[in-house]
Amino acid sequence: MSDQKLAPMTEPETGALFDADLQQAISRRAAPRRPGPVSNATMFGWRALLKIKHVPEQLFDVVVTPIMFTVMFTYLFGGALAGSTIDYLQFLLPGILAQTVIFTTIYTGVTLNTDISKGIYDRFKSMPIWGPSPLVGAMLGDFLRYTGSSIIVVLIGLLMGFRPEAGLAGVLYSMVLLNVFAFGIGWIFTTLGLLMRTPGTVMTISWIVLMPLTFASNVFVDPATMPGWLQAVVNANPVSHLVSAIRELMAGTATLSGLLLALALPAFITVVFAPLAMVLYRRPR
Amino acid sequence: MTSPLAIETRQLVKVFGTNRAVDGVDLRVPQGTVYGVLGPNGAGKTTTLRMLATLLKPDGGEALVLGHNVATEAAAVRQRISLTGQFASVDEDLTGLENLRLLAGLLGFRRRDGRARAEELLQGFGLAEAAGQQVKYYSGGMRRRLDIAASILVTPDLLFLDEPTTGLDPRSRNQVWDIVRALTRGGTTVLLTTQYLEEADQLAERIAVIDHGRVIAEGTSAELKASVGTSVLHVSVLSADQREPAARVLREQLGIEPYAEADPTALTLQLDDTRHAPRALNALTEADIPLRSFSLGQPSLDEVFMALTGHPAEPETDTMEVTA
Ligand SMILES: Nc1ncnc2c1ncn2[C@@H]1O[C@H](COP(=O)(O)OP(=O)(O)O)[C@@H](O)[C@H]1O
Ligand SMILES: [Mg+2]
């Protein structure tokens, strides 16, 4: 651009701003017609996209651990656990997919809390925009993160030899289910993000909750091989229900009852935590 | 529904636990002027501003902003004000241009108009070169200017600037001052808070001095100075060990308590009558205390603050803005 070359002129030695440009910049500007809620939320969605573009690490950070698990478990224990590494991968990958997306939900709370602690929400809240639009727009970013991280995991799986019997459709249905599940449990982290003082605390608490939840599940091994008391725990774990539903979707054997069971937890959390989050969000600080 | 006052508060109160952060503040800010709220750290400046900008609910009293009650007509207030907070509220991960385009979009600018407006502001604020860089790489001064640009995409009738130059180098400070002056020429009322007396003196037509959540003085800079005494006498002795004897002589001869400046050789006296000055000079000469300098002048705002509160206003160490 030609005015790029002129730019240094705007900051001469004295530190004064280039007067004509300054006058032009501060000349009176009337407000355009106030946009509706959809437009506001879309802008926040665009912001979430930009953040993924500028900070792509946020996608890779969350998939590194699951990928390590996939490789390690498949090649180290696959043979012992399922007879062959390929058979074990068929069993493991849907579980890892669930684990990845569940870990990704942590970012929902962390990004929200970062915004709040940096004062950016003060600006949004003092603007004449639809109140919940920052939260709604952020969800669009969340969906992209969930989808992005699951695509990475599925691709690695395919490279290692994972072959879903239900083919592409199975993968797509699984992703939809994962998004809905993550949207639901995301409300917990949104609430945490609104309550905690620092992004670090949100992160720590989230891990403390999610680690046992994903490990005491059927992600890595079939609960049939576990002692009775542990079987009871694992079978009651909502993460197990999600993993079972994804295995069935990938295998083309999904049942309505299995899907409903998987969706019970996110539905419950949405009903309880979404209104709570909205109240917390609106509360003047 | 226009009021001749941009801001009018009556006994505004905000309590945090047992801390009365804002303790009965009365402000009357005329439209079209720069109004300065001057006070040390913790005086309650930010809390007052956040209440006026509808970000915080007052616990008592009343505030009208551009004729609208902040408690009951928050939406109407938000339509016409803009706030630049004490700590930059721009997105560090986004570029300067993206930040402004995002906010323009939220305000209802169409895509192309928003981009044009953003570029115009970046150009005017000396940020054209940095437009495509992520804000995390901006200097403190650049961040500040972007932050102000973000507040005036649509020209507000009233702009709140919370400590706009704290931690900035003199050059960046001048640039912010230029922007504020240009804005008021365009008809925007600016309410700014500051810890710097010089800044209030330079920019503000009227100043409210606040301390511990209360307004302790209000007026033009000249009025504040006049309220302290007609003039101030600055005396500087040759060496630090002569300051105490000089202070004793002045106390005895004039009956005024000298104030010891940070400079170990300097003393300041508030005179309510300029005729005391020759008497002071005579007394010091008779006591055989040699002087490096002796001058009579208007009190600085610093001295005003000292006289009003009994403690200096400037922070002991400059609170630098944390820049990553
Ligand atoms: N959110 C808050 N919770 C509790 N105390 C607060 C809060 N914000 C400010 N305070 C307290 O209120 C007082 C005034 O703070 P503030 O308005 O930030 O002062 P200033 O902006 O003049 O430095 C201080 O004692 C501060 O500790
Ligand atoms: Mg403050």
Automatic annotation (TrEMBL), chain B:
Give a Gene Ontology cellular component term annotated to this protein.
Answer: plasma membrane
Q: Which BP terms does GO give this entry?
A: daunorubicin transport; doxorubicin transport
The protein's UniProt keywords, in alphabetical order, are: ATP-binding, Cell membrane, Membrane, Nodulation, Nucleotide-binding, Translocase, Transport
Q: Which InterPro entries match?
A: AAA+_ATPase, ABC_transporter-like_ATP-bd, ABC_transporter-like_CS, ABC_transporter_ATP-binding, DrrA, DrrA1/2-like_C, P-loop_NTPase
Taking every annotated instance into account, which residue ranges of this chain make up the domain ABC transporter? Answer: 7-237
Q: PANTHER family recorded for this chain?
A: ABC TRANSPORTER ATP-BINDING PROTEIN (PTHR42711), DOXORUBICIN RESISTANCE ATP-BINDING PROTEIN DRRA (PTHR42711:SF19)
Q: What family name appears in the similarity comment?
A: Belongs to the ABC transporter superfamily. Drug exporter-1 (DrugE1) (TC 3.A.1.105) family.
Its name, as the record gives it, is ATP-binding cassette domain-containing protein
Q: Which organism is it from?
A: Natronospirillum operosum
Q: What is the lineage of its organism?
A: Bacteria, Pseudomonadati, Pseudomonadota, Gammaproteobacteria, Oceanospirillales
